[in-house]
């Protein structure tokens, strides 16, 4: 039973690596061309997948998020906008009093 689970986990890792190579844009692939990585991962399933994860996969880029209160930063949605919330509260009070 444990052997079956390990086999399924290795198969899942290989498929994930293969689909990751296929869906990664050509210009983001590192070290070698995308076609070479595809052959490596397909021909040598586990070792190729590990090398892809370590060497070929694009590095994650963390975008800087604007800090609240910076000049020119607009709220993301109406529930983040203090002016909208004040106007909403004023309208709700006006409707309940009428």
From TrEMBL:
Regions annotated as coiled coil: none
Pfam families, sorted: PLDc_N
Domain Cardiolipin synthase N-terminal: 12-57
Keyword annotations: Cell membrane, Membrane, Transmembrane, Transmembrane helix
Membrane-spanning intervals of the chain: 35-54
Primary location group: membrane
Domain of life: Bacteria
Entry's localization field: Cell membrane
Keyword Membrane: yes
Record protein name field: PLD nuclease N-terminal domain-containing protein
């Amino acid at each position: 039973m444990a052997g079956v689970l390990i086999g399924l986990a290795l198969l899942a890792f290989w498929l994930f690596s293969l689909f990751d190579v296929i869906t990664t844009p050509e210009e983001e692939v590192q070290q070698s061309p995308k076609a070479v990585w595809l052959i490596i991962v397909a021909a040598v399933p586990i070792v190729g997948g590990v090398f892809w994860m370590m060497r070929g996969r694009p590095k994650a880029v963390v975008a800087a998020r604007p800090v609240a209160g910076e000049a020119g930063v607009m709220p993301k949605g109406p529930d983040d906008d203090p002016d909208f919330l004040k106007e909403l509260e004023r309208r709700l009070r006006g409707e309940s009093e009428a």
